[in-house]
From TrEMBL:
Residues 1-36 form the signal peptide. CDD domains: Glycosylasparaginase (cd04513). GO terms for molecular function: beta-aspartyl-peptidase activity; N4-(beta-N-acetylglucosaminyl)-L-asparaginase activity. Heterotetramer of two alpha and two beta chains arranged as a dimer of alpha/beta heterodimers. This is beta-aspartyl-peptidase. It catalyses: Cleavage of a beta-linked Asp residue from the N-terminus of a polypeptide. It comes from the Eukaryota. Pfam families: Asparaginase_2 (PF01112). Gene3D superfamilies: (Glycosyl)asparaginase (3.60.20.30). GO terms for cellular component: cytoplasm. GO terms for biological process: proteolysis.
Length: 372
Protein backbone atom coordinates (compact mmCIF):
# COMPACT_ATOMS: atom_id res chain seq x y z
CA UNK A 1 0.00 0.00 0.00
CA UNK A 2 1.40 3.43 -0.95
CA UNK A 3 1.36 6.15 1.65
CA UNK A 4 -1.27 8.07 -0.27
CA UNK A 5 -3.49 4.96 -0.26
CA UNK A 6 -2.87 4.55 3.47
CA UNK A 7 -4.03 8.13 4.06
CA UNK A 8 -7.15 7.54 2.07
CA UNK A 9 -7.71 4.29 3.91
CA UNK A 10 -7.58 6.04 7.27
CA UNK A 11 -9.67 8.91 6.00
CA UNK A 12 -12.28 6.45 4.84
CA UNK A 13 -12.26 4.67 8.21
CA UNK A 14 -12.52 7.93 10.06
CA UNK A 15 -15.51 9.36 8.21
CA UNK A 16 -17.36 6.05 8.44
CA UNK A 17 -17.01 5.90 12.22
CA UNK A 18 -20.04 6.61 14.40
CA UNK A 19 -19.85 9.73 16.54
CA UNK A 20 -19.27 7.94 19.88
CA UNK A 21 -16.05 6.38 18.50
CA UNK A 22 -14.52 9.83 18.59
CA UNK A 23 -15.22 10.10 22.30
CA UNK A 24 -13.56 6.74 22.97
CA UNK A 25 -10.51 7.67 20.91
CA UNK A 26 -9.96 10.91 22.75
CA UNK A 27 -10.62 9.46 26.19
CA UNK A 28 -8.23 6.52 25.74
CA UNK A 29 -5.01 8.35 26.62
CA UNK A 30 -6.62 9.71 29.78
CA UNK A 31 -7.76 6.27 30.90
CA UNK A 32 -4.34 4.71 30.45
CA UNK A 33 -2.84 7.54 32.47
CA UNK A 34 -5.13 6.75 35.40
CA UNK A 35 -4.37 3.05 35.47
CA UNK A 36 -0.73 3.58 34.50
CA UNK A 37 0.81 3.27 37.93
CA UNK A 38 -0.99 -0.02 38.59
CA UNK A 39 -0.39 -1.92 35.38
CA UNK A 40 3.11 -0.55 34.72
CA UNK A 41 1.80 0.45 31.35
CA UNK A 42 3.17 3.10 29.10
CA UNK A 43 1.18 3.87 26.00
CA UNK A 44 3.86 6.02 24.46
CA UNK A 45 7.32 5.65 23.04
CA UNK A 46 10.19 5.99 23.37
CA UNK A 47 10.97 3.44 26.04
CA UNK A 48 14.17 2.09 27.58
CA UNK A 49 14.40 -1.06 29.72
CA UNK A 50 17.56 -2.54 31.20
CA UNK A 51 18.59 -5.31 33.56
CA UNK A 52 19.72 -4.18 37.04
CA UNK A 53 19.79 -0.65 38.49
CA UNK A 54 22.16 0.53 35.75
CA UNK A 55 20.51 3.93 36.02
CA UNK A 56 23.23 5.92 34.25
CA UNK A 57 23.16 3.56 31.29
CA UNK A 58 19.39 3.92 30.98
CA UNK A 59 19.69 7.71 31.25
CA UNK A 60 22.26 7.70 28.43
CA UNK A 61 20.02 5.56 26.22
CA UNK A 62 17.02 7.71 27.09
CA UNK A 63 18.86 10.91 26.25
CA UNK A 64 19.68 9.48 22.82
CA UNK A 65 16.28 8.02 22.00
CA UNK A 66 14.32 10.96 23.39
CA UNK A 67 16.48 13.19 21.21
CA UNK A 68 15.39 11.25 18.14
CA UNK A 69 18.12 8.61 17.81
CA UNK A 70 17.27 5.18 16.43
CA UNK A 71 16.68 2.24 18.75
CA UNK A 72 19.98 0.69 17.62
CA UNK A 73 22.06 3.79 18.28
CA UNK A 74 20.33 4.38 21.62
CA UNK A 75 21.13 0.84 22.75
CA UNK A 76 24.76 1.53 21.83
CA UNK A 77 24.73 4.79 23.83
CA UNK A 78 23.27 3.00 26.87
CA UNK A 79 25.55 -0.03 26.84
CA UNK A 80 28.62 2.13 26.08
CA UNK A 81 27.87 4.20 29.18
CA UNK A 82 27.92 1.00 31.23
CA UNK A 83 31.20 -0.10 29.62
CA UNK A 84 32.77 3.26 30.46
CA UNK A 85 31.43 3.21 34.02
CA UNK A 86 32.43 -0.47 34.37
CA UNK A 87 28.97 -1.16 35.81
CA UNK A 88 29.40 -3.55 38.77
CA UNK A 89 32.85 -4.46 37.45
CA UNK A 90 31.13 -6.95 35.16
CA UNK A 91 30.67 -4.73 32.11
CA UNK A 92 33.53 -3.19 30.16
CA UNK A 93 37.24 -3.55 30.97
CA UNK A 94 38.91 -4.19 34.31
CA UNK A 95 36.74 -6.99 35.74
CA UNK A 96 36.03 -10.72 35.71
CA UNK A 97 39.56 -12.09 35.18
CA UNK A 98 39.67 -15.57 33.66
CA UNK A 99 41.89 -18.42 34.93
CA UNK A 100 44.86 -16.66 33.32
CA UNK A 101 43.93 -13.29 34.79
CA UNK A 102 42.76 -11.84 31.49
CA UNK A 103 39.58 -9.83 30.93
CA UNK A 104 37.66 -10.39 27.67
CA UNK A 105 34.48 -8.85 26.32
CA UNK A 106 31.22 -10.33 25.00
CA UNK A 107 28.55 -8.12 23.39
CA UNK A 108 25.49 -8.34 21.15
CA UNK A 109 23.22 -6.02 19.27
CA UNK A 110 20.02 -6.89 17.44
CA UNK A 111 17.87 -4.71 15.19
CA UNK A 112 14.34 -6.10 15.33
CA UNK A 113 13.26 -4.13 12.26
CA UNK A 114 15.68 -6.00 9.98
CA UNK A 115 16.45 -9.03 12.20
CA UNK A 116 20.13 -8.19 11.78
CA UNK A 117 22.44 -9.23 14.61
CA UNK A 118 26.06 -8.41 15.34
CA UNK A 119 28.10 -9.87 18.18
CA UNK A 120 31.61 -10.32 19.50
CA UNK A 121 32.71 -13.00 21.94
CA UNK A 122 35.86 -13.45 24.02
CA UNK A 123 37.17 -10.27 22.40
CA UNK A 124 40.62 -9.26 23.67
CA UNK A 125 42.33 -5.87 23.93
CA UNK A 126 39.29 -3.76 22.92
CA UNK A 127 37.07 -2.06 25.50
CA UNK A 128 34.13 -1.08 23.27
CA UNK A 129 32.06 -4.27 23.17
CA UNK A 130 28.74 -2.89 22.00
CA UNK A 131 30.35 -0.69 19.34
CA UNK A 132 32.28 -3.70 18.04
CA UNK A 133 29.01 -5.64 17.88
CA UNK A 134 27.40 -2.81 15.89
CA UNK A 135 30.35 -2.84 13.46
CA UNK A 136 29.81 -6.57 12.90
CA UNK A 137 26.09 -5.99 12.30
CA UNK A 138 26.39 -2.97 10.03
CA UNK A 139 29.60 -3.71 8.12
CA UNK A 140 29.69 -7.49 7.64
CA UNK A 141 27.38 -10.25 6.47
CA UNK A 142 28.30 -12.20 9.61
CA UNK A 143 26.64 -12.40 13.00
CA UNK A 144 29.41 -13.34 15.45
CA UNK A 145 33.16 -12.78 15.53
CA UNK A 146 35.33 -14.29 18.27
CA UNK A 147 38.60 -13.95 20.13
CA UNK A 148 41.63 -12.13 18.82
CA UNK A 149 40.16 -12.05 15.30
CA UNK A 150 37.23 -10.04 16.68
CA UNK A 151 39.73 -7.61 18.21
CA UNK A 152 41.62 -7.27 14.92
CA UNK A 153 38.37 -6.57 13.10
CA UNK A 154 37.23 -3.99 15.66
CA UNK A 155 40.55 -2.15 15.58
CA UNK A 156 40.73 -2.27 11.78
CA UNK A 157 37.27 -0.66 11.68
CA UNK A 158 38.37 2.22 13.87
CA UNK A 159 37.87 1.28 17.51
CA UNK A 160 40.70 2.10 19.95
CA UNK A 161 43.16 -0.66 20.76
CA UNK A 162 45.03 -2.78 21.49
CA UNK A 163 44.25 -1.89 25.12
CA UNK A 164 45.18 -3.70 28.33
CA UNK A 165 41.77 -4.78 29.70
CA UNK A 166 43.12 -5.64 33.16
CA UNK A 167 42.87 -3.31 36.13
CA UNK A 168 44.76 -3.34 39.44
CA UNK A 169 41.52 -4.66 41.02
CA UNK A 170 41.11 -7.53 38.56
CA UNK A 171 44.77 -8.50 38.95
CA UNK A 172 44.48 -8.43 42.75
CA UNK A 173 41.35 -10.59 42.66
CA UNK A 174 43.09 -13.06 40.40
CA UNK A 175 46.25 -13.20 42.54
CA UNK A 176 44.17 -13.95 45.65
CA UNK A 177 42.34 -16.70 43.78
CA UNK A 178 45.62 -18.26 42.64
CA UNK A 179 46.93 -18.10 46.21
CA UNK A 180 43.74 -19.88 47.32
CA UNK A 181 44.53 -22.89 45.06
CA UNK A 182 42.33 -21.54 42.26
CA UNK A 183 39.14 -22.25 44.24
CA UNK A 184 36.33 -22.18 43.40
CA UNK A 185 36.47 -22.72 39.68
CA UNK A 186 34.37 -23.98 36.79
CA UNK A 187 36.07 -27.36 36.33
CA UNK A 188 34.31 -30.64 37.04
CA UNK A 189 35.35 -34.29 36.90
CA UNK A 190 39.00 -33.33 36.79
CA UNK A 191 42.13 -34.15 38.69
CA UNK A 192 43.53 -32.45 40.70
CA UNK A 193 40.21 -31.20 42.04
CA UNK A 194 41.45 -28.94 44.81
CA UNK A 195 44.38 -27.11 43.31
CA UNK A 196 45.40 -25.25 40.22
CA UNK A 197 46.01 -27.18 37.01
CA UNK A 198 47.12 -28.55 34.73
CA UNK A 199 44.04 -30.74 34.96
CA UNK A 200 43.23 -34.07 33.41
CA UNK A 201 39.78 -35.61 33.02
CA UNK A 202 38.46 -38.18 35.49
CA UNK A 203 35.32 -40.26 35.10
CA UNK A 204 32.45 -38.32 33.71
CA UNK A 205 29.53 -38.15 36.14
CA UNK A 206 26.12 -37.26 34.87
CA UNK A 207 24.89 -36.13 38.29
CA UNK A 208 26.96 -34.75 41.14
CA UNK A 209 25.32 -37.25 43.52
CA UNK A 210 26.12 -40.23 41.32
CA UNK A 211 29.31 -41.52 42.88
CA UNK A 212 31.51 -44.26 41.66
CA UNK A 213 33.47 -45.73 44.59
CA UNK A 214 36.89 -46.00 42.98
CA UNK A 215 36.98 -42.40 41.86
CA UNK A 216 34.94 -40.87 44.66
CA UNK A 217 37.97 -39.38 46.39
CA UNK A 218 38.74 -37.33 43.30
CA UNK A 219 35.26 -35.97 43.12
CA UNK A 220 35.31 -33.70 46.09
CA UNK A 221 34.78 -31.60 43.10
CA UNK A 222 34.80 -27.92 42.73
CA UNK A 223 31.15 -28.16 41.76
CA UNK A 224 30.45 -28.76 45.46
CA UNK A 225 31.65 -25.25 46.22
CA UNK A 226 29.23 -22.46 45.54
CA UNK A 227 30.13 -20.52 42.44
CA UNK A 228 27.32 -18.18 43.38
CA UNK A 229 29.73 -15.89 45.18
CA UNK A 230 31.59 -15.39 41.95
CA UNK A 231 28.60 -14.01 40.17
CA UNK A 232 27.52 -10.48 40.63
CA UNK A 233 25.19 -8.67 38.31
CA UNK A 234 27.15 -9.81 35.31
CA UNK A 235 25.34 -8.42 32.27
CA UNK A 236 23.72 -5.31 31.01
CA UNK A 237 20.93 -6.33 28.68
CA UNK A 238 18.93 -3.42 27.30
CA UNK A 239 15.87 -2.96 25.10
CA UNK A 240 14.87 0.30 23.43
CA UNK A 241 11.73 1.21 21.51
CA UNK A 242 12.35 4.42 19.58
CA UNK A 243 9.90 7.15 18.54
CA UNK A 244 9.08 5.28 15.33
CA UNK A 245 8.18 2.18 17.34
CA UNK A 246 11.25 0.26 16.17
CA UNK A 247 12.89 -2.06 18.67
CA UNK A 248 16.54 -2.92 19.30
CA UNK A 249 18.22 -4.90 22.05
CA UNK A 250 21.83 -5.14 23.14
CA UNK A 251 24.06 -6.67 25.79
CA UNK A 252 27.57 -6.18 27.08
CA UNK A 253 29.54 -8.14 29.67
CA UNK A 254 33.04 -9.26 30.57
CA UNK A 255 31.68 -12.67 31.51
CA UNK A 256 32.12 -14.94 34.50
CA UNK A 257 34.97 -14.41 36.97
CA UNK A 258 37.65 -17.15 36.80
CA UNK A 259 36.07 -18.65 33.70
CA UNK A 260 38.11 -21.12 31.70
CA UNK A 261 39.84 -19.12 28.95
CA UNK A 262 37.77 -19.34 25.79
CA UNK A 263 34.46 -19.55 27.60
CA UNK A 264 31.60 -17.65 25.99
CA UNK A 265 28.38 -17.21 27.91
CA UNK A 266 24.88 -16.18 26.96
CA UNK A 267 25.81 -12.51 26.41
CA UNK A 268 26.54 -12.62 22.67
CA UNK A 269 23.89 -15.27 21.90
CA UNK A 270 20.74 -13.89 20.30
CA UNK A 271 17.64 -15.42 21.88
CA UNK A 272 19.47 -16.06 25.13
CA UNK A 273 20.59 -12.78 26.73
CA UNK A 274 18.31 -10.65 24.55
CA UNK A 275 15.86 -10.92 21.70
CA UNK A 276 13.32 -8.77 19.94
CA UNK A 277 10.70 -9.12 17.25
CA UNK A 278 9.41 -5.88 15.78
CA UNK A 279 5.67 -6.72 15.93
CA UNK A 280 5.81 -8.43 19.33
CA UNK A 281 8.29 -6.97 21.79
CA UNK A 282 11.59 -7.63 23.46
CA UNK A 283 13.31 -9.52 26.25
CA UNK A 284 16.46 -9.00 28.32
CA UNK A 285 18.07 -11.70 30.45
CA UNK A 286 20.83 -12.01 33.03
CA UNK A 287 22.19 -14.69 35.32
CA UNK A 288 23.94 -18.02 35.04
CA UNK A 289 24.72 -17.78 31.35
CA UNK A 290 26.23 -21.22 30.98
CA UNK A 291 22.87 -22.73 31.89
CA UNK A 292 20.56 -20.11 30.45
CA UNK A 293 22.05 -20.28 26.95
CA UNK A 294 20.86 -23.89 26.66
CA UNK A 295 17.25 -22.73 26.89
CA UNK A 296 17.24 -19.49 24.84
CA UNK A 297 14.99 -17.87 27.45
CA UNK A 298 14.58 -14.58 25.60
CA UNK A 299 13.54 -16.31 22.40
CA UNK A 300 11.06 -18.22 24.54
CA UNK A 301 9.69 -15.05 26.15
CA UNK A 302 9.15 -13.24 22.85
CA UNK A 303 7.65 -16.31 21.21
CA UNK A 304 5.24 -16.76 24.14
CA UNK A 305 4.17 -13.13 23.83
CA UNK A 306 3.66 -13.64 20.11
CA UNK A 307 1.27 -16.44 20.99
CA UNK A 308 -0.67 -14.09 23.24
CA UNK A 309 0.92 -14.45 26.69
CA UNK A 310 1.14 -11.41 28.94
CA UNK A 311 4.74 -10.27 29.65
CA UNK A 312 4.57 -11.44 33.27
CA UNK A 313 3.45 -14.93 32.39
CA UNK A 314 5.91 -15.20 29.50
CA UNK A 315 8.76 -14.19 31.83
CA UNK A 316 7.71 -16.64 34.57
CA UNK A 317 7.29 -19.45 32.09
CA UNK A 318 10.80 -18.97 30.68
CA UNK A 319 12.29 -19.15 34.19
CA UNK A 320 10.20 -22.20 35.13
CA UNK A 321 11.39 -24.15 32.10
CA UNK A 322 15.01 -23.78 33.26
CA UNK A 323 14.24 -24.34 36.95
CA UNK A 324 12.64 -27.70 36.22
CA UNK A 325 16.04 -29.00 35.06
CA UNK A 326 18.36 -26.77 37.13
CA UNK A 327 16.61 -25.92 40.41
CA UNK A 328 19.69 -24.07 41.72
CA UNK A 329 20.33 -21.78 38.77
CA UNK A 330 20.31 -18.00 39.18
CA UNK A 331 18.60 -16.02 36.49
CA UNK A 332 16.15 -13.33 35.54
CA UNK A 333 14.34 -12.01 32.51
CA UNK A 334 12.41 -8.86 31.77
CA UNK A 335 9.73 -8.97 29.09
CA UNK A 336 8.47 -5.97 27.19
CA UNK A 337 5.61 -5.98 24.71
CA UNK A 338 4.77 -3.60 21.89
CA UNK A 339 2.24 -1.79 24.10
CA UNK A 340 5.07 -0.87 26.45
CA UNK A 341 3.92 -3.26 29.19
CA UNK A 342 6.87 -4.75 31.03
CA UNK A 343 7.37 -7.40 33.70
CA UNK A 344 10.23 -9.35 35.22
CA UNK A 345 10.66 -12.84 36.63
CA UNK A 346 13.61 -14.37 38.44
CA UNK A 347 14.86 -17.56 40.02
CA UNK A 348 17.21 -17.97 42.97
CA UNK A 349 17.84 -14.29 43.63
CA UNK A 350 16.11 -10.93 43.80
CA UNK A 351 16.17 -9.12 40.49
CA UNK A 352 15.96 -5.44 39.68
CA UNK A 353 15.42 -3.79 36.35
CA UNK A 354 15.33 -0.17 35.21
CA UNK A 355 12.80 1.62 33.03
CA UNK A 356 12.51 5.08 31.52
CA UNK A 357 9.30 6.07 29.76
CA UNK A 358 7.78 9.42 28.81
CA UNK A 359 5.48 9.29 31.84
CA UNK A 360 8.43 9.04 34.25
CA UNK A 361 10.45 11.99 35.51
CA UNK A 362 13.60 9.89 35.70
CA UNK A 363 14.64 6.24 35.54
CA UNK A 364 12.56 3.98 37.80
CA UNK A 365 13.90 0.75 39.27
CA UNK A 366 11.54 -2.21 39.68
CA UNK A 367 12.23 -5.06 42.11
CA UNK A 368 11.22 -8.63 41.35
CA UNK A 369 11.25 -11.44 43.94
CA UNK A 370 11.58 -15.11 43.04
CA UNK A 371 8.11 -15.65 44.51
CA UNK A 372 6.48 -12.92 42.40
C1 LIG B 1 47.86 -4.74 32.37
O1 LIG B 1 47.38 -4.02 33.48
C2 LIG B 1 47.55 -4.67 34.72
C3 LIG B 1 46.84 -3.87 35.81
O2 LIG B 1 47.13 -2.51 35.76
C4 LIG B 1 49.01 -4.89 34.99
O3 LIG B 1 49.18 -5.57 36.22
C5 LIG B 1 49.60 -5.71 33.84
O4 LIG B 1 50.98 -5.87 34.02
C6 LIG B 1 49.33 -5.07 32.51
N1 LIG B 1 49.76 -5.95 31.45
C7 LIG B 1 50.56 -5.54 30.47
C8 LIG B 1 50.92 -6.58 29.47
O5 LIG B 1 50.97 -4.41 30.38
Amino acid sequence: MHSRDLGEHFHHQFISMPANSFIIIFLLPLLSLVVGHETVQTEEYPLVVSTWPFVEAVRAAWKAVDGGSSAVNSVVEGCSACEELRCDGTVGPGGSPDENGETTIDALIMDALTMEVGAVAAMRYVTDGIKAARLVMQHTEHTLLVGEKASEFAISMGLPGPTNLSSPESMEKWTKWKDGSCQPNFRKNVSPANSCGPYSPTHYLRHPGETCSSTAHMLTSNSGLPLVGLHSHDTISMAVIDRMGHIAVGTSTNGATFKIPGRVGDGPIAGSSAYAVEEVGACCATGDGDIMMRFLPCYQVVESMRLGMEPKLAAKDAMARIARKFPDFLGAVVALNKKGEHAGACHGWTFKYSVRSPSMEDVEVFTVLPSD
